[in-house]
Write a structure and sequence with these properties.
It is a single chain. The protein is built from seven helices and five strands; from the N terminus they run H-E-E-H-H-E-H-E-H-H-E-H. By secondary structure, the protein is α/β, with parallel strands linked by helices. It has a five-stranded mixed beta sheet, sandwiched between helices. Strand 1 and strand 2 form a beta hairpin. The longest helix is centred in the N-terminal third of the chain and has 19 residues. It binds zinc ion. Zinc ion binds next to helix 2 and helix 4.
Amino acid sequence: MITDKDMQHLRRCVELAAEALEAGDEPFGSVLVDADGNMMREDRNRANTVDATYHPEIAVAKWAAENMTPEARAKSVVYTSGEHCAMCSAAHAWAGLERIVYVSSSKQLGEWMAEMGVKSSSPINTLSIQEVAPNIPVDGPIAGLDEEVKELQRHSLQKY
Ligand SMILES: [Zn+2]
């Protein structure tokens, strides 16, 4: 069930993804929200400008692990423009965070790349969040907003 509040956070993720693309990074953005709906942390992909492991999903999970109590983390939600990769799903679970809501799935990204004739440059297998961390409640993709992410990914993938 996706609420108006969820949609606000998801739209912010897409904005952050656009900022990442603009800055020369990959178009992914994430927002960490606590049990009361407060935005605690947001970040974007910095894989080209910082280091290859700088995905926003692991960045917000690490921030939560360092700055929030286990009780607060267990009620927190991470919104993200694209489904967590295996590294980020693992970090989310180890940090003891709760729900994930993503705009577009890893499966969709794979389909978009196939449409464009782009071969994946990912060094790891594409696993769904549930395959890595089966106890995390997950929602997504979000019809309509996923088209905006597709557009950002299309721009990003054109350079390959
Ligand atoms: Zn990741």
